[in-house]
Amino acid sequence: MDAVNIDAMLARFAEQWSPKKIAQVNDYDVRIVKLQGEFTWHKHDDTDELFLVLSGELTIQLRDRQVVLRPRELFVVPRGTEHCPRADAETAVLLLEPSSVINTGDAGGDFTAAVETLS
Amino acid sequence: MDAVNIDAMLARFAEQWSPKKIAQVNDYDVRIVKLQGEFTWHKHDDTDELFLVLSGELTIQLRDRQVVLRPRELFVVPRGTEHCPRADAETAVLLLEPSSVINTGDAGGDFTAAVETLS
After folding, report:
1. How many CB pairs under 8 A join A and B?
2. CATH label of the domain that carries residue B75
3. Do the chains contact at B48 and A54, CB–CB below 8 Å?
4. Cα separation of B119 and B115, whole Å?
5. Containing domain of residue B83, as a range?
6. 8 Å CB contact of A4 and B73
7. Is the model's pLDDT at A1 over the cut of 90?
8. Which of A2, A16, B46, B90 might form a disulfide with B36, Cβ 3.0–4.6 angstroms?
9. B24: closest chain A residue by CA
10. Which conformational region is residue B56 in: left (phi greater than 0), alpha (psi within -120 to 50 degrees), or beta?
């Protein structure tokens, strides 16, 4: 593989809520996604999930509080924890999670998206 | 856990070549490290290792080429691949790797450092 420029990868797609894989570390994916609006409440029973904001502002709603992330801030949603991402303006996020993870976790529904690999 | 601000974490230490853990995703660590000069040639036989540059410029020397990374650029060194990081000016890097990984891999030596957790 070559070096991966995150901004060059972000420039290659416009669709929101559709994670793109940009690197793999063992059986984990590094994914980037553009978000705007509110996602669906869901959880991942078998894995933690890392969110690192690249641009914009992301609110991770949890059932008992919310976590606001700005660029160069990260948060790990623990396994089994219901969460619902929300962004008022378009926000770009780097995700780290096992390659098997589906974006909508246990919830399914219209937001469910296959992960395309950008290379 | 709370949101983790990477720059606030970087401001908490000055020592170079000493990775600090800032988050955990399952059995993986997110670590940050400040580098300057040349590390030691080593490899990790059991795992890939991700480097994401936060500031400065990192050269990852491989036996057959070198990869230069600037901020918002990343590279995954495949398992078993000899590599030697180098940075002319101080450079900050985010690392992702299994929590069991020792910074000097198979090489050992004076650069070997325990991983402190910043919380």
Report:
1. 88
2. 2.60.120.10
3. no
4. 13
5. 6-117
6. yes
7. no
8. B90
9. A76
10. left
A17: in domain: yes
Looking from the CA of A33 toward its CB, the CA atoms found within 13 Å total 26
Residue % of chain A over a pLDDT of 90: 92
Task: Name the burial class of residue A62, with classes exposed (0-12), middle (13-18) and buried (19+) by CB atoms within 10 angstroms of its CB.
Answer: middle
The alpha-carbon gap from A100 to the nearest alpha carbon of chain B, in Å, equals: 14
- Overall number of domains in chain A: 1
Identify the band that residue A106 occupies on the pLDDT scale cut at 50, 70 and 90: very high
- Interchain CB distance below 8 Å, B73 and A5: yes
Q: For the segment B10-30, what is each residue's pLDDT rounded down to a tens digit?
A: 999 999 999 999 999 999 999
Q: What is the pTM of this model?
A: 0.96
Q: Which residue has the tokens 């940075």?
A: B87
pLDDT surpassing 90 at residue B41: yes
Predicted ipTM?
0.95
Is residue A1 a part of any domain in this protein? no
Q: Is the pLDDT of residue B73 over 90?
A: yes
Q: Do A49 and B3 touch (CB under 8 A)?
A: no
Residue B1 inside a domain? The answer is: no
A 10 A CB-CB count for B20 gives: 21
Would you state the pLDDT for residue A119? 84
Closest-CA residue of chain B to A97: B25
Q: What is the mean pLDDT of residues A10-15?
A: 97
